[in-house]
Specification:
Helix content: 10-25%
Number of strands: 14
Largest sheet: 14 strands, antiparallel
Number of domains: 2
Radius of gyration: 37 Å
Structural class: alpha+beta
Order of helices and strands: HEEEEEEEEHEEEEEEHHH
Number of helices: 5
Shape: elongated
Length: 353
């Protein structure tokens, strides 16, 4: 069973602390043949989105279309990827508009424990559907097409190592090795102006025996804009016609941590004086309240007398029952633990209203 390299998984985890805005931009390339004849275009759009209870996800929409020898063909990828580069949903469509059209759609959904892949093949009026399940614990480091477009931008911005080995799906939608190799710097000419670009080669190794890996070579500007891209062995090359404008982002200093100062008010003359003044103020206020309401003294006297007679183990529960009749909201004694027991309570000195 194939698996990602541990060092590559560590590198992947190190990329998650990034500003999402630093990768949210569009790229457009022109598809042309070796004789410089334009035959189509390749577009990538990244935006923020939410997916169910998942927030701060990234929606990836990539579309390539071309006409070769009068035959339209193309690929569309629509994906939702978390900030940690985990694909939660993707639809990958490929088509060739022959007299008998060929279409292949691969739907990828992340469930609780498995990834569910539904493959639909259509050729003319013939249609077949196949479903596969891949346990998540076997697919650590799985990078599909949508997540790949995000990952490569981050690799350029974060100085990728010489080689990164993760996982992806091959042409049969089976788990396979997904290897990224740094191609280093290269001068790329755009509209007569040379700019420095950095290259990444991506290879997906087929699980079928004797099958050659599928490889793409992509070159990016220093901030991650895609400048050129082509599949090894394909007659089509993709290249931008517009010099990318370097993205600028605000940088914020980390919030300073100010330690909480421990205050010992007992040793501070001013604070201790304020404490004593406030304490005396509250005591006088309470005394005044009780003095002007003699019924409180009578009620407390009854309660203390009852406690001394009954000697309850739980004074708090006993107090709850004793004072319940004086509260309109808790007058229903069935709400209390000993409500049905007869408790000899001394007759109150004040009438109940």
């Amino acid at each position: 069973m194939v698996s990602a390299e541990n060092s590559s998984l560590e590198y992947l985890r190190s990329l998650v602390n990034y500003d999402t805005n630093s990768i949210l931009y569009d790229d457009t390339l022109i598809c042309s043949l070796t004789n410089n004849t334009d035959v189509g275009s390749f577009e990538v759009k990244l935006t923020k989105t939410n997916y169910g209870n998942l927030h701060d996800c990234i929606q990836v929409i990539a579309n390539s279309q071309a006409t070769i020898d009068g035959v339209p063909c193309g690929t569309t990828v629509r994906a939702v990827v978390t900030k940690e580069l985990v694909t939660v949903q993707q639809e990958h469509t490929e088509y060739v508009k022959l007299p008998s059209p060929i279409t292949r759609i691969v739907d990828f959904i992340s469930e609780s424990t498995d990834y569910v892949i539904t493959i639909t093949n259509e050729e003319g009026k013939k249609k077949t559907t196949e479903t596969k399940r891949i346990p998540k614990h076997q697919a650590h480091g799985l990078i599909l097409e949508g997540a790949n477009l995000i990952l490569q931008r981050l690799m350029i911005q974060r100085n990728m190592p010489e080689k990164v080995t993760l996982l992806s799906l091959d042409s049969s939608s089976e788990l396979s090795r997904n290897v990224y190799t740094s191609l280093g710097p290269q001068q790329v000419n755009i509209n007569g102006k040379d700019i420095e670009a950095w290259g990444i080669q991506r290879q997906i190794f087929e699980t079928k025996s004797n099958a050659l890996p599928v490889a793409w070579q992509s070159y990016f500007s220093i901030d991650g804009h895609l400048i050129s891209r082509y599949q090894v062995g394909s007659p089509i090359k993709m290249k931008t016609r517009i010099l990318p404008i370097a993205e600028e982002f605000d940088e914020y200093l980390p919030k300073p941590e100010i330690p909480k100062k421990e205050i010992k008010w007992e040793n501070d003359l001013e604070l201790r004086s304020r404490f004593i003044d406030r304490r005396e103020e509250l005591i006088d206020d309470y005394k005044s309240y009780i003095y002007h309401r003699p019924d409180i003294n009578a009620l407390l006297s009854d309660f203390l007398q009852s406690v001394l007679i009954m000697k309850p183990e739980n004074v708090i529960e006993y107090a709850t029952e004793f004072f319940a009749p004086f509260n309109n909201q808790t007058a229903d004694r069935s709400l209390f633990r000993f409500a049905d027991e007869k408790i000899p309570v001394p007759k109150s000195n004040i009438p109940l209203k």
